[in-house]
């Protein structure tokens, strides 16, 4: 590596040279601390022959380190100004490809399958734009793609919900659904002062690894049930679940069968208990 991009002076130099500024509507905040991007890249890249999919490379701060550790890096970028910038900032790397397309519109399964067929392990690594973190992650979660891990930076309060434990203020339907699909591990907390421009909030990096899917669970129904149980946070399981079933008496009976006190609230119900409730509900259908 000739010189890290993720420093204040280098970032200012690149932005000035290419007459580029951070676009608010793309949620752009450029990382200016090399130790942060290096840790994300090291955490993301496994030991096997690996291709990293990056979402929103910006001017290449994280991309640069991904190129150091991965055999190949494919970055998806929506901002038409940046391919020329990246051609300059990443000119020392021949293992980098830029795809000018909104990640939310790509055929993820086809992209992953292409590289799996070539013998690559596929990982996702990104400093995600805050405004679109959840749609991007759910696109990946809901795909059938064979992705080994997802290592991403996001707004800390969103990360707290993904990683939240039962009986905490951040625990909600997003926590349950994510932890049903994935093992979620914290990688690091990232203060707001390592970005340019500085955002209003701190960030955090999480890593997601997919669990084996349970073929007996109709996920769409399970996810709907979980969301319904958190619909009004201060209401009891009986009220929320009863509204979902449109039958309070049936809700009471199913909760009792699942050994869940009807007076409890959704935030006190563990993933394991939600799975039991789903099984009871399905068996009674």
From TrEMBL:
Source taxon at top rank: Bacteria
Location relative to the cell: Cytoplasm
Catalytic activity: adenosine(1518)/adenosine(1519) in 16S rRNA + 4 S-adenosyl-L-methionine = N(6)-dimethyladenosine(1518)/N(6)-dimethyladenosine(1519) in 16S rRNA + 4 S-adenosyl-L-homocysteine + 4 H(+)
Chief location of this protein within or outside the cell: cytoplasm
Single GO term (MF): 16S rRNA (adenine(1518)-N(6)/adenine(1519)-N(6))-dimethyltransferase activity
Residues annotated for S-adenosyl-L-methionine binding in this entry: 29, 31, 56, 77, 102, 127
Pfam families per UniProt: RrnaAD
Documented EC number(s): 2.1.1.182
Ranges of residues in domain Ribosomal RNA adenine methylase transferase N-terminal: 36-212
UniProt keyword list: Cytoplasm, Methyltransferase, RNA-binding, rRNA processing, S-adenosyl-L-methionine, Transferase
Cross-referenced InterPro entries: KsgA/Erm, rRNA_Ade_diMease-like_C, rRNA_Ade_Mease_Trfase_CS, rRNA_Ade_methylase_Trfase_N, rRNA_adenine_dimethylase, SAM-dependent_MTases_sf
GO cellular component terms attached to this protein's record: cytosol
Role this protein plays: Specifically dimethylates two adjacent adenosines (A1518 and A1519) in the loop of a conserved hairpin near the 3'-end of 16S rRNA in the 30S particle. May play a critical role in biogenesis of 30S subunits.
Similarity section: Belongs to the class I-like SAM-binding methyltransferase superfamily. rRNA adenine N(6)-methyltransferase family. RsmA subfamily.
Protein name stated in the entry: Ribosomal RNA small subunit methyltransferase A
């Amino acid at each position: 590596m000739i010189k890290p991009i993720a420093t204040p002076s280098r970032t200012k130099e690149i932005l000035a040279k290419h007459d580029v500024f951070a676009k608010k509507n793309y949620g752009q905040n450029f990382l200016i601390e090399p130790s942060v991007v290096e840790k994300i890249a090291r955490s993301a890249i496994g030991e096997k022959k690996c291709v990293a999919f990056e979402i929103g490379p910006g001017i290449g701060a994280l991309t640069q380190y991904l190129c150091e550790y991965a055999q190949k890096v494919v970055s998806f970028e929506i901002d038409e100004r940046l391919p020329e910038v990246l051609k300059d900032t990443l000119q020392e790397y021949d293992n980098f490809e830029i795809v000018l397309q909104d990640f939310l519109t790509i055929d993820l399964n086809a992209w992953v399958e292409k590289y799996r067929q070539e013998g690559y392990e596929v990982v996702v690594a990104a400093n995600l734009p805050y405004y679109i973190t959840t749609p991007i992650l759910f696109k990946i979660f809901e795909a059938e793609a064979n992705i080994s891990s997802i290592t991403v930076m996001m707004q800390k309060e969103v990360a707290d919900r993904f990683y939240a434990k039962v009986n905490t203020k951040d625990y909600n339907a997003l926590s349950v659904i994510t932890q049903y699909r994935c093992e979620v591990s914290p990688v690091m907390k990232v203060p707001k002062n390592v970005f340019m421009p500085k955002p209003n909030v701190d960030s955090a990096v999480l890593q997601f690894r997919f669990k084996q899917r349970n073929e007996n669970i109709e996920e769409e129904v399970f996810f709907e049930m979980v969301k319904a149980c958190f619909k009004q946070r201060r209401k009891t399981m009986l009220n929320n679940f009863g509204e979902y079933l449109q039958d309070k008496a049936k809700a009471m009976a199913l909760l009792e069968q699942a050994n869940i006190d009807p007076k409890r609230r959704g935030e006190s119900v563990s993933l394991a208990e939600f799975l039991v409730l789903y099984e009871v509900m399905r068996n009674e259908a």
